[in-house]
Amino acid sequence: GNDQLMTPNKEATELTWENVDVMLPRTEKLRSMVREGIPHSLRAQMWMRLSGALAKKQKSETSYHDIVKASGNDQLMTSKQIEKDLLRILPTNACFSNPHGTGIPRLRRILRGIAWLFPDIGYCQGTGVIAACLLLFMEEENAFWMMATIVEDLLPASYYSSTLLGIQADQRVMQTLIANYLTSVDETLKKHDIELSLITLHWFLTLFANVVHMKILVRIWDWFFYDGSIVLFQLTLGMLKLKENDLQNLENSAQIFNSLSDIPGEVDDVQILFHQALEVGGSLSQTVIDTHRRRHLAYLMADQGGLVGNPEAVPNLPKQHLARRQVRKSKSILETLLFRGEPDSVELKNKNIRQTEILVDLREAILKVARHFITIEPKLAAHIQLTANYSTDSHAKDHENFIKERNNGPAPESLIRNILYLNSNCYYI
């Protein structure tokens, strides 16, 4: 009799989320179930596991509480930018429509936390609507770790940077895929001289939040959190495929532009969209996407002065991983006494990584400045080399040359030579 009484409680215990793996094993069956739609009552917990956000939360040395505390400064530039946007993000939702809405303080803390944790990003408007939509389905702390996972793991590192390099590259990748997979759409766009990125950049930036109905968005996110950013390309191809015939019957570029802009809002049957997305883009792989991304990133950087030389051959693309800020915790007296002379290996490794990234940033900045002066004085380009020489011999007279050029005065050529002296020493150090 006691065994029978205990069985329901035992089953109830076994069915709690604490007993579900932090990361779910990737199988075709799970992928198929996710595409069919996650039951709404399970969505928040499943998103945390599918995306890797729960694992990130549990492994993090810095707690959300500490991040909120560290990012609470009202005087930071990012804090002021966030404050301006808070009421514009989801103005039609009661939780976010007025300063006293229940969602506003939560959204403020999440956006400040992300801006603080990832200084390379700061605050980007596209992140606001994603965070607000996440808050509609999950508690604040989990929504924060979902955001951290999106910007750090699911999307390229330079997606939300001030230059938006990553998302610009993805728009070029999208153009390449349209040319390969949807030739008639590509011909229509070219014939009417339509720049599709003016429409689709917003779709990618917000992960389709605010451009599709909420019932469609949650299904898109089910799939996105399982398969990552490749889904953005597959869905966009699917949406364009749905409009392919209609576009051919339109007469002018304004009609075509408006028709393309309206596509997400007109999606009513998510299964039809997914079917089209897989029919057109099912053969896409992450390797193909990554290859296209690297090529287009190189060309974008060359256009903006970040890369010099042949974009196909230059390997120094933007940082592949975002820099993370750490909450500095003072060591206990015991730690100081016991380990006074032994540097923490993890701390040392993080410091070295950060210093390397600073040097990468410095080198990119130096190249931009040099490129700027060459643009002003084109005749200098003939005998100024922007490629750094890292050989030991080339540095024998560095200091002597630097002093000599400095004494020559502030002429553009002298400035460039000094800039290139710095450039050649960025990695020599």
TrEMBL record:
PANTHER family: RAB GTPASE-ACTIVATING PROTEIN 1-LIKE, RUN AND TBC1 DOMAIN-CONTAINING PROTEIN 3. This is Small G protein signaling modulator 3-like protein. It comes from the Eukaryota. InterPro entries: Rab-GAP-TBC_dom (IPR000195), Rab-GAP_TBC_sf (IPR035969), Rab_GAP_TBC_domain (IPR050302). GO terms for molecular function: GTPase activator activity; small GTPase binding. SUPFAM superfamilies: Ypt/Rab-GAP domain of gyp1p. Residues 37-228 form the Rab-GAP TBC domain.
